Amino acid sequence: MAKKKKKLTKAGQMILDLILVISLCTAAYSGYRLWKETEKYRVAGKSYDDMRETVAGKPRPVSSDEEPQERVIDWDALKAINPDFFAWIELEGSTIDYPVIQGSDNAWYLKHLPDGTYNDAGTIFIDAENRTDFSDRVTVFYGHHMLDDPLMFAEVENFKNQSYYDTHQEFLIHTPDAEYEMYPLAGYVTSGTAGYVQLSFVSDEEYAAYVNDFIARSDFTSQETFSPSDHILMLSTCSYDITDGRYVLIGKLKKVSGTD
Question: Which candidate, 145, 34, 132, places its Cα nearest to that of 95?
């Protein structure tokens, strides 16, 4: 009887040892996965930091106590990195400060950095069907919002709060030939399958109805007004509020300098 009890004890110890080994392996794998996730964002962040320093001068200060510096972009150097670059977007007092690219489709730059490196952070890009001179009534920029990471368009969803809009009312869009400002009109959470992107319209009435629907759904109240003669810039990013969510921000686009 005693020998049988001893055998059961050894078997139990083996089970405990096996559980310990499995737990350690699981913890190690989880740690590796976490490192891998954070490492790709670190690589992407450094890539864009280097780009800002070498081709776009110093970024605007995040602190509101500092005076903004004039942005001078070396477009030749930027296009040497990737000839598909055509613009730069920034929002003072935020982490949004990135070049904008156009691909042949709306898939490639979701998962690739400007140099072609595969990276989940991707690149901010204009809709493949848009013209890069902003002559379309609606122009769409897409950018990721990584959970718990401030890269790319993460701060766009902050427009859910009226207080954020109140202190962030002007985006700057730089191009080789002109400077633009974008004044937020409306923003809200929707589904990625909701068909919220529309680039062409058969009439002023259809266009006005489309934009006014955004305004009616908006999380914040804008100081801006809309008329069918206005051009709209839409910023589309992920939202984790719903399954397959998107946060969509639209604003009036105004050329402030440059050639026609």
Answer: 145
Q: Domain tally for the chain?
A: 1
pTM exceeding the 0.70 threshold for the entire prediction = yes
Domain that includes residue 100, residue range = 46-258
21 CB burial (10 A radius; 0-12, 13-18, 19+)? exposed
The pLDDT tens digits for 2-59 are 445 555 576 666 676 666 666 555 555 454 454 445 678 888 889 899 998 888 875 5
Q: Which CATH number fits the domain that encloses residue 119?
A: 2.40.260.10
Q: Within its chain, how far is the Cα of 113 from the centroid?
A: 13
